[in-house]
Design a protein that fits this description.
By secondary structure, this protein is an alpha/beta fold. The chain is about 35% helix and about 10% strand. It has an 8-stranded parallel β-sheet with strand order 9-8-7-6-5-4-3-10, covered by helices on one side.
Amino acid sequence: MKYQPLGRTGIKVSQLCLGTMMFGGKSDETESFRMIDHAIDNGVNFIDTADVYASNESERIVGKALASDNRRDNVILATKFNFANPADRNARGLSRRHVINACDASLKRLKTDWIDLYQMHRCSSAIPIDETLRALDDLVRAGKIRYIGGSMFPAWRIVESLWVAKELGLNRLICEQPAYHLLDRTAEREVIPAAQSFGLAVIPWGPLCGGLLSGKYTRDQQVQGARWQDGKDNANRRATDQTWDVLDLLKKMADDKGCSMSQLALAWNMAQPGVTAPIIGPRTFEQIEDNLRAVDVEMSEEDFSRIDELVPPKGYVVRYYDEANAIDFRPHSHRSIV
């Protein structure tokens, strides 16, 4: 396992981040503990969760796991806020009220006094960014969070947030979490270049395209009960004929390298310019065993060129990024920082 700086900060994180969306849902507590232990034992020091995962259960499980053996001190812990209680209009979003309440609730579930990376789980045109950044800055100054990040921020919103932070003397974004994998390279158009220009870490989510890059799906074979059925996933994102051509190529490349297709896809992701640490999201112990071995897969220039021929830089064969609600703009919304 290698380690690199988290953006412009002084801390270093493992080249793979353990995502915990399945913990407390499809992965029970015992299996989740086992996966966390295995990740830490294999050098992972970066764990990402969110208050919305498994109705808060993911945070509770992560907190319980890290509370034992003083492991919390050695882990860079990230969580996210925005989506929460649909029954309470004010228990969600990026308002000052919700930012502070959500942080306090996450701290309790995570059994910790601080969150290393606190991320806005999507941006919002309904709340002026200065309100959100002021609240997050107060949390940094109070010692409850160390750094601020965003998820699925278009490049212009990244720049807007950095400008507002500079104008108002607030703590700035240090990280962006986009949807990014070799079947959809949309983030390469503006988001990743913006992050590189302004020193933001990039921690892609969905690097296996919801399992489509795991190797268990083929053009003619479906997996009953799995996320992808009849060429589309449970969010109605669709695979095209060209998608299956790419998967055929990846299967051959993985066989030639003696690795799994998921390991190849993760190795590709880790090697992309600007990427700090892809977020793996295992559901089973076997999946995390497989994913962590991606650090041993070597990619050549020929490998990159073969993939580029079928999925050109900035292109896509599965429309994934845009379908993940990356676009959020209301032309008549009020956005003043005064």
